[in-house]
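Hey, resending since the last one bounced:
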Amino acid sequence: MQEFLAKVKPKQKKVFSELRTAIIALPEIQESIEIDELSGDWCPAYRVRGADLVWVHLVDRLWAHIPIEPDFEKKVLQDENLDSAIVEKVKEAEEAGGVKLAKLEVKSTDEVEQIMPLLKLRHTILIA
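The structure tokens again:
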């Protein structure tokens, strides 16, 4: 991870560190640095019991790529506590490589706080 972070811009490093800390605080999180087959980029991947929770892309900007399966999407649309902009991103999720992905840009620590409820909801589903 240190080698990966050495290539990250300072502002992104702060936001990524906050996001990473919040994600790895969730139970049973597995973290790895892998090549994303769709983009060809090296990125941190976070899984729960072998299932993808989120992939974080740090190219020019920081992006969280979250898989959106039909059952998860249904729960997101029913959850009144999620930020409406986040729900819109889930609705706009596009299929890539056979997987529907919501791509959320994370520019600040405030935005980390906005997407964590979505990641916690996904985590709850994956851990059940």
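The chain is about 45% helix and 30% strand.

Sorry for the duplicate.
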